[in-house]
Fold this protein.
Amino acid sequence: MTVFQTKTKTTKTQTRHGAGLRTVHPATTIVPLHGEIDIFTSPALRERLLRALRLSTGPLVLDLSRVSFCDVSGLAVLVGTQRRARALGITLRLAAPRSQTVRMLRVTGLDRVLMMHGSDQDEPETYSLPAQTRTGD
């Protein structure tokens, strides 16, 4: 079963002892996704992402770190969401996609259309989500 949660983070966080500052830009909406994105779960995902777009005023980040599978219907939802986001002036980013999803994006050429950060085939420091932003509402 796939679970979709949305969390809007509008504050800055700082690690203890001044080790570093990790900023989540104001009004960034992070949507953690879990499980499989396929023909059966895509309609619910589409509705959830449209709702997230309606509530967003800044970047929309889809946390794919716990997505175990994504088929063509899932990619269609991501592309449709990206197009709607762009029309609204919102930047869509895919965070931490697993290798299967990265391969699918590369084979289809969508890696040139959808911004990816922190995939398991990227450099590990490229992008990571603060732990506190992964919780749902």
Remarks:
- The longest strand covers residues 60-70.
- The beta strands are 3-4, 7-9, 12-14, 21-23, 28-37, 60-70, 92-95, 115-117.
- Helices lie at 42-55, 72-87, 99-108.
